[in-house]
Amino acid sequence: EVSIGRVISLYRRKGIGNKLMELGKAVAKEKYGATKIKIGAQVQAQPFYEQAGFVPISEHYLEDGIPHIYMI
């Protein structure tokens, strides 16, 4: 199972996170043959990941006291 870790950007709203996500998805497909990519997203960032094509597959859960959701 292929997973992408955190996408962090010091400069929000500049497209850097989108570029990192697209590159991460491309590498997962090309290098690892991924047909599905699973992420554990912070609930507050769910719209960002939905924009990148991910869909929720779980209920919310806590990780380090922060609400998260699994997405593919």
Tell me about this structure:
The protein has 72 residues and is of the alpha+beta class. The protein is 32% helix and 24% strand. It has two helices and four strands, in the order E-H-E-H-E-E. It has helices spanning 16-32, 46-51; strands spanning 2-3, 37-42, 61-63, 66-71. A four-stranded mixed β-sheet has the order 1-2-4-3, covered by helices on one side. It is globular and about 35 Å long. The protein starts with a strand and ends with a strand. The relative contact order is 0.20. The model has no long low-confidence stretch (mean pLDDT 90).
The global form is globular
Unreliable residue runs: none
**Beta-strand residue percentage:** 15-25%
Q: Which structural class fits the helix and strand makeup? A: alpha+beta
Compact summary:
This protein has 72 residues and is of the alpha+beta class. It is built from two helices and four strands.
Question: Keywords for this structure?
Answer:
alpha+beta; 2 helices; 72 residues; four-stranded mixed beta sheet
